[in-house]
Automatic annotation (TrEMBL):
Domain called EGF-like: residue spans: 130-166, 167-205
Entry keywords, A to Z: Calcium, Disulfide bond, EGF-like domain, Glycoprotein, Repeat, Signal
Taxonomic lineage: Eukaryota, Metazoa, Chordata, Craniata, Vertebrata
Highest taxon above the source species: Eukaryota
Disulfide pattern: 102-129, 156-165, 176-193, 195-204
Pfam families per record: EGF, Laminin_G_2
Gene Ontology terms: biological process: developmental growth
Name of the protein: EYS protein
Domain Laminin G: 1-129, 210-398
């Protein structure tokens, strides 16, 4: 499989192969090689339907029956490749050559790549396209960069400060603890502190411990499974207790949640009923919704378990089997390659639940979670030792 964007005789060309055929899209307008004009390029696919957009002019390749997942096992290359042997002969029309020009603002699946010296895994023969120390987006938040003898300086908009305009003026004198995030509140000319896991209080100075995690909204825990490399991923299992009075919310997401091709197993609430969704490959998300009766949003504790036996999924609620389905009798994909990552309650600050889950769940979880067990482990996982923010001690209060 491959996906390649190239410049051919002045035209932008997109080629991709999902395993059965190579699809080719090409722009109608040429890119003029004057070296002074920046062009905006958007390209990609939804299933096996491709699209290519150059400066607002869009081309779409109609979808037809066939493969719809992109399985690649190489690094992501920009501007060229480390070895021509890595280029599939069908990915380009002629012999592959490196790109000459400037590239900026590369966004892959809503995540911007940092084209710096330190962030990529490697590279060669690449320089600063701007030709000065200012470069591109050195000054954040629409700051203006000026070249100086000692380097550069940034002239910041009214709401921002710092050497690169990276800090809100409302957070410049904040009292948040060292483990906290300062969130500016421009309308009130103030800020709020979002506490890291294990801290609480207005400024996050109070150290806490808990066995019951309380999620208040805009909260999350990210747990990394230390035994992931030893797991038999064809036989996954997760169980936990939860309580809430909300009708919507993501309880747990087993998976990286980084791009559309990541496997995942998710559990949450939709319209007051328990919803389980699993994706073992090819971006086929199979939703299993228990709608017999709504018991999940009554403020009482409920015990939920999801068991994956290859493609057979069982869901238990309060020890009653409520869902049992074989999501793929053909057994094409049978392993849950979740990357050893489990999110509880939501995702990192700034990542919207409805965006990351592509609408499968609408909101973060508000309520409490305890007694989380993965696979057939004899011990509950220690949520306190994970990463997270805005999670509190659920042992007391509502």
């Amino acid at each position: 499989d491959f996906l390649c964007i190239s410049l051919l005789n002045g035209f932008i060309q997109l080629r991709y192969n999902l395993g059965d055929r190579t699809v080719i899209l090409q722009t109608f307008q040429k890119v003029h090689a004057n070296g002074n004009t920046w062009h905006s390029l958007k390209a990609g696919r939804v299933g096996n339907e491709g699209y290519l957009d150059l400066d607002g002019i869009n081309i779409t390749q109609e979808a037809s029956p066939g493969m719809n997942a992109l399985d690649t096992h190489t690094d992501f290359f920009v501007g060229g490749v480390s070895s021509l042997n890595l280029v599939n002969p069908m990915a380009v029309e002629n012999e592959p050559t490196g790109f000459t020009g400037c590239i900026r603002e590369i966004v892959i699946n809503n995540r911007e790549l940092k084209l710096t010296v330190t962030d990529p895994k490697g590279g060669a023969n690449v320089g600063d396209c701007d030709g000065t120390v200012c470069g591109y987006t050195v000054c954040k938040n629409n700051g203006t960069c000026q070249v100086e003898n000692s380097g550069f300086s940034c002239s910041c908009p009214q709401e921002w400060t710092g050497s690169s305009c990276e800090q809100s003026i409302h957070c410049s004198q904040n009292r948040c603890g060292s483990q906290a995030l300062c969130i500016p509140q421009p309308t009130s000319f103030s800020y709020t502190c979002v506490c890291a896991l294990g801290w609480s209080g207005e400024y996050c100075y109070n150290k806490i411990k808990f066995f019951i995690a309380k999620f208040i909204g805009n909260s999350y825990i990210k747990y990394t499974d230390p035994y992931y490399g030893k797991r038999d991923l064809q036989y996954s299992r997760i169980s936990l207790n939860f309580t809430t009075n909300q009708t919507e919310g993501l309880i747990v997401w087993m998976g990286k949640g980084e791009d559309e091709d990541n496997d995942f197993l998710a559990m949450g609430l939709v319209n007051g009923t328990l919803k389980v969704v699993i994706n073992l490959g090819e971006r086929i998300s199979v939703p299993l919704i228990h709608s017999k009766y709504s018991t999940c949003c009554d403020g009482k504790w409920h015990f939920a378990t999801v068991v994956q036996n290859q493609t057979c999924i069982k869901v238990y609620l309060d020890e009653e089997l409520i869902l049992f389905e074989d999501i793929d009798p053909q057994r094409k994909y049978t392993a849950l390659n979740y990357g050893g990552i489990c999110y509880f309650g939501g995702f990192e600050i700034g990542r919207k639940v409805n965006v990351v889950t592509t609408g499968l769940f609408q909101k973060e979880f508000i309520g409490k979670i305890k007694d989380v067990v993965l696979f057939q482990d004899s011990r509950k996982i220690q949520l306190m030792k994970a990463e997270g923010y805005n999670v509190y001690d659920g042992n007391y209060g509502n």
